[in-house]
Specification:
By secondary structure, this protein is of the alpha+beta class. The chain has 3 helices and 6 strands. The protein is elongated and about 40 Å long.
């Protein structure tokens, strides 16, 4: 009985200590290379979670030209924006994509 409680407690602690990442592309241009942003240590300590909205200017080649933060907690927004610079979209006409990055604990 004690072993089961210990295992369940460990599983609960591990699930609370991880951060999930997802993104939604508003304009439909497909991401071909996505690196998940690291969950900032400060955000973990503060218990901060939530959505960050980004506007991403994408070149015809699919490379990210510029990232603007449209909303979200500043600590999370910085992490999302820095990582988005390393993303790659499918080639096509130059475009501006709106992306929502969700940080959950």
């Amino acid at each position: 009985m004690k072993v089961i409680r210990l295992v369940m407690t460990f599983a609960l602690v591990m699930s609370l200590a991880t951060a999930a990442f997802s993104q939604d592309i508003a304009n439909g241009r497909k991401l071909t290379k996505r690196i998940a942003p690291s969950y900032p240590e400060l955000a973990k300590k503060m218990g901060v979670a939530g959505a960050v909205k980004l506007e991403i200017a994408v070149a015809a080649s699919g490379k990210v030209k510029e990232v603007k933060i449209l909303g979200g907690h500043p600590v999370l927004a910085q992490a999302a924006a820095q990582t988005a610079h390393n993303w790659q979209f499918e080639p096509g006409a130059e475009s501006t994509e709106q992306v929502t990055v969700n940080f959950t604990r």
